[in-house]
Design goal:
Number of strands: 7
CATH architecture: Roll
Structural class: alpha+beta
Number of helices: 3
Strand content: 35-45%
Radius of gyration: 19 Å
CATH topology: Nuclear Transport Factor 2, Chain: A
Shape: globular
Largest sheet: 7 strands, mixed
Number of domains: 1
CATH class: Alpha Beta
Length: 177
């Protein structure tokens, strides 16, 4: 490989890795009840407009980007999607294994998605992998196909937060010290 080829590979890899984080940011910068459901603000930089998101592993279907965004945030991104049962969440997208072949690439990235459940004293954890196919387009690397592989989805009851240095965390009862 030449220096120019090596540098191009590294730049492509960095771009893909950075863009994988946009999925979580698209979710997390638009929390339930925030009044801002525009997850496409970040996802528009991650997904190709004609992308397909395959959620058959969890019993759903293959979605267009718009249909997937509406699954998450309701029709017209106005609420009432999967945001309805949760009051808070965080989506952590892990470091990916990336394979690049010219203007095409594939990646596998672990994810950990946590959700606070509105009508229950519980949290959920969704853990799995994203399997992505990428294309280099005029606007940069974009996912053209994403497949969800869910390893597990667990619900955990909330318990009292241990008294750590007499710090009270918002919304969480603290054990007496």
């Amino acid at each position: 490989m030449s220096l120019a080829t090596d540098v191009r590979y590294l730049l492509d890899r960095f771009e893909i890795q950075d863009k994988i984080a946009l999925y979580g940011l698209g979710q997390d910068l638009h929390q339930p009840d925030s009044g801002d459901n525009d997850i496409l603000a970040q996802w528009g930089e991650l997904f190709a407009p004609d992308a397909e998101i395959d959620c058959t592993d969890v019993g759903l279907s293959v979605f267009s980007l718009r249909a997937y965004a509406e699954l998450m945030r309701g029709p017209g991104l106005k609420g009432g999607g999967l945001d309805a049962p949760f009051n808070v969440w965080q989506h952590i997208e892990g470091h990916a294994t990336v394979t690049i072949d010219g203007d095409a690439a594939t990646s596998v990235a672990p994810h950990l998605h946590t959700h606070g459940v509105r009508q229950a004293e519980a949290n959920t954890f969704a853990v799995g992998y994203w399997h992505d196919r990428w294309e280099r387009r005029a606007e940069g690397w974009r996912i053209v196909h994403r497949r969800l592989q869910q390893l597990y989805f667990h619900t955990f009851p909330l318990t009292r937060t241990p008294n750590l240095f007499d710090i009270a965390f918002e919304g969480m009862p603290v054990e007496a010290g």
